[in-house]
Amino acid sequence: MVVKEKIGIVVSDKMVDTRIVAVSDRIVHKRYKKVVTRTKRYAVHDSEFNSKAGDKVRIKQTVPISKTKTWAVSSILRKSST
């Protein structure tokens, strides 16, 4: 099985073991041919509490951990300045 990976920004770190990561994708609209940015939010498992809000992280798909969590933090690419 190929492991899917995405890069996004941590937008919430309020929950225990869970981070909310926003992943933005740029696509071309089918009819209007305009570049549109779409953002999707993922519930991501982070048991070591390494990531904070504003960090840029790489996430990977895992087996389901809970009802909404099927992603886990694999690495932190850039720490936030705050």
Structural descriptors:
chloroplast; Ribosomal_uS17; five-stranded mixed barrel; 82 residues; OB fold (Dihydrolipoamide Acetyltransferase, E2P); ribonucleoprotein; RNA-binding; Small ribosomal subunit protein uS17c; globular
Structure commentary:
- The chain is an all-beta fold and 82 residues long.
- The chain contains no helices and 5 strands.
- The protein has a 5-stranded mixed beta barrel with strand order 1-2-3-5-4.
- It starts with a strand and ends with a strand.
Q: Which ranges are low-confidence, i.e. pLDDT below 50, for 5 or more consecutive residues? A: none
Gyration radius from CA atoms, angstroms: 14 Å
Under CATH, the topology is which?
A: OB fold (Dihydrolipoamide Acetyltransferase, E2P)
Biggest sheet record: 5 strands, mixed, barrel
Could you tell me the mean pLDDT? 94
- Main structural class: mainly beta
Can you count the beta strands? Answer: 5
N-to-C SSE string, H for helix and E for strand: EEEEE
List the helices and strands and how they pair.
Elements: E1 5-12, E2 18-28, E3 35-45, E4 56-61, E5 71-78
Parallel strand pairs: 3-5
Antiparallel strand pairs: 1-2, 1-4, 2-3, 4-5
Structure at a glance:
One of the primary rRNA binding proteins, it binds specifically to the 5'-end of 16S ribosomal RNA. This protein is mainly β and 82 residues long.
